[in-house]
Design goal:
- By secondary structure, the protein is of the alpha+beta class.
- The chain has one domain.
- The protein is built from 2 helices and 4 strands; from the N terminus they run E-H-H-E-E-E.
- It has a two-stranded antiparallel sheet.
């Protein structure tokens, strides 16, 4: 099950920019630590969200199994005994 995550470099750049922005804001006179932390957490959450939503998971098709009462092959991920 390969995972394709093309946005890793973009996420890293976005997080780096968020920290630089927080550093620059913190260096200003009268800076509000609470506002800086709030903006930093929002920026990081946005970067992570963009990364996670860019991920593609490739799932290989299941294996052919036999199923009683069904014509032709059935594709499933696994086989196991049933219970009632």
């Amino acid at each position: 099950m390969p995972i394709i995550a093309p946005g890793k470099m973009s996420m890293q750049s976005s997080i780096n920019a968020a920290f630089v922005r927080a550093k620059d804001e913190g260096a200003k006179d009268g800076a509000s630590p609470d506002a800086i932390i709030s903006q930093l957490s929002s920026d990081i959450a946005g970067a992570v969200d963009a990364y996670v939503t860019s991920i593609t998971v490739m799932i290989n098709p299941g294996i052919a199994v036999s199923a009683a009462g069904v014509m032709g092959p059935v594709v499933g991920a696994t086989t196991s005994p049933g219970s009632s």
